[in-house]
Specification:
CATH architecture of the domain at 87-210: Alpha-Beta Complex
Helix content: 40-55%
Shape: elongated
Largest sheet: 3 strands, antiparallel
CATH topology of the domain at 87-210: Glutamyl-tRNA Synthetase, domain 3
Number of helices: 19
Order of helices and strands: EHEHHEHHEEEEHEHHHEHHHHHHHHHH
Structural class: mainly alpha
Low-confidence stretches: none
Mean pLDDT: 83
Number of strands: 9
Length: about 475
RNA sequence: GGCCCCAUAGUCUAGUGGUUAGGACUCCGCUCUUUCAAGGCGGCAGCACGGGUUCGAGUCCCGUUGGGGCCA
């Protein structure tokens, strides 16, 4: 075991960040933090065709969203830079050259068509389709011929043809590979770029050349979709921004992902970031893939929302509300305090920030729908318009707008009419919020301006009185 | 197709030879409340299969099946 743990996360900048990649990054980060080592970010963009600066930004954002920081990386630098592979091509080229010189690699002039054809033949014969190594033994004259024909070679590694290579993996155990089964892998493309595999190996092994111990691998199990196949785009939301946009709190996602493939060894489920770091270990990581269960992820998110102070929750809600046009761009301190009160009142219910906003819409606008249950069960009842009218008249004259005074009026009205309080409460809730569910009615009324409530009561009174007249 | 890894309820998992197999999500009841989408209480449901080893196997070994990964 090396004295200093160094873990590396090496994503390709593909323009979006998969939640499975984030899971991998999290575990590597946890391991580094647990043992006070370094977490290194390296961008693997040797696939020249597809890297853009924005795509690298997506990776940064995904990691930052979850609260993962890196000790070395393209933007922060570090002693073993550069940390973007495309900036290291000269380095890889020099290693390719070295291998060629030593006869450990050779130039291969086979065309993709020829290779395909031969693979097909081998398959037809029931043989494993692997490169037959024919270019290994090309003579100088043959090479010259190909060259003059203008055909650029790729470079292959002359792999051992017998024996077994054993890779030690901290999670998967000893993983032996039969050398005979593997063809000579391409390590340099015809374009002169190194292949992904070669670059990775050079980068990892370079640490050894620089006096670090041989890198040790730990292959984490993958995340699967609900149908148990590898999580991919067709499973719907898989990119990190999708979860952020859905309204997941990063701390909840952190907790949830940590528990996917790792267990603290107890029955605790809600664990803080610090607890997770201090209790993390590779031994406690499972080695079988696990399914991403959205229902449980939402449950965990709701747990975090419930325990979060309203003030803090309000800050998370604010940008989403503004985006929906439900909140002003430059709110006053007073308005933020009010939002915190709304958050406290509603946070028991919603599983996500977005559902919170949907469910709490009536706090921010008069523009909400009456849902089916509110209409059928209360609003269209014959007595309702009169009840709403009477309630509005009583509430209108209140000089002190608090849940207590409101409750007193509501109950007094019910008593006057000789009905249970529910006969006033339910129509009122339906009229003022458009729905039959929600928090304590008197507390929610208290948080809305008196005139807003009066207006909404009258509006519903008129609308449903007319409704019946039209029938 | 070859090689490797894995296998506890629908899902995430605890469990390292002797447990009534524990927890959580989901689902379903009941209950409280002015409502539930919240709270409280309860329930359904699991060691993939077949052989061994052992006094005794979820736990160890072999095979089968299934899933996943890597290679091509």
């Amino acid at each position: 075991m090396p004295d200093t743990i160094r873990t590396r996360f090496a994503p390709s900048p593909t323009g979006y960040m998969h939640i499975g990649n984030l899971h991998t990054a999290l575990f590597e980060w946890l391991y580094a933090r647990r043992y006070e080592g370094q977490f290194v970010l390296r961008i693997e963009d040797t696939d020249e065709a597809r890297h853009t600066p924005e795509a690298v930004g997506v990776i940064y954002e995904g990691l930052r969203w979850l609260g993962i920081d890196w000790d070395e990386g393209p933007d922060v630098g570090g002693p073993y830079g550069p940390y973007v592979q495309s900036e290291r091509v000269e380095l890889y080229r020099s290693y390719l050259g070295k291998l060629l010189e030593q006869g450990l690699a050779y130039e291969c002039y086979c065309t993709p068509e020829e290779l395909d054809q031969r693979r097909e033949m081998m398959r037809a014969q029931g043989l494993p389709p692997r490169y037959d190594g024919r270019c290994r033994t090309l003579t100088a004259t043959q090479k010259a011929e190909y060259c003059s024909a203008g055909q650029p070679p790729c470079i292959r590694f002359a792999a051992a043809e017998t024996g077994t290579t054993v890779v030690h993996d901290l999670i998967q155990g000893e993983v032996p590979f039969e050398n005979a089964l593997m063809g000579d892998p391409v390590i340099g493309k015809t374009s002169g770029f190194p292949t992904y595999h070669f670059a990775v190996v050079v980068d990892d092994q370079l640490q050894e050349a620089l006096g670090f111990p041989t890198p040790v691998y730990a292959h984490l199990p993958l995340i699967l979709g609900e149908d148990k196949s590898k999580l991919s785009k067709r499973h719907g939301a898989v990119s990190v921004v999708d979860y952020a946009e859905k309204g997941f709190l990063p701390e909840a996602m952190f907790n949830f992902l940590a528990l996917l493939g790792w267990s603290p060894g107890s029955t605790e489920e809600i664990l803080s970031r610090e607890e997770i770091i201090s209790r993390f270990s590779l031994e406690a990581c499972g080695s079988s893939p696990s399914v991403f269960d959205m229902a449980k992820a939402e449950w965990m998110n709701s747990e975090y929302m419930k325990t979060m102070p309203g003030e803090q929750l309000a800050r998370r809600l604010l940008p989403l509300l503004q985006k929906e046009g439900l909140f002003e761009e430059n709110p006053t301190e007073e308005r933020l305090t009010w939002l915190a009160q709304v958050a406290d009142l509603m946070k028991e219910r919603a599983p996500l920030l977005t559902t919170f906003i949907t469910w709490a819409r009536y706090f921010f606008t008069d523009d909400y729908e009456y849902d089916e249950k509110a209409r059928n069960k209360w609003l269209t009842k014959p007595a309702t318009p009169a009840t709403l009218h009477a309630l509005a008249e009583r509430l209108q004259v209140l000089t002190d707008w608090t849940s207590d005074t409101i409750e007193a009026e509501v109950r007094a009205l019910a008593e006057d009419r000789g009905v249970g309080a529910g006969k006033v409460i339910h129509p009122c809730r339906s009229a003022v919020t458009g729905t039959t569910v929600g928090p304590s009615l008197f507390h929610l009324l208290e948080l809305l301006p008196q005139e807003t409530i009066i207006r909404r009561l009258h509006r519903a009174e008129v609308e449903f009185a007319e409704d019946r007249a039209a029938d």
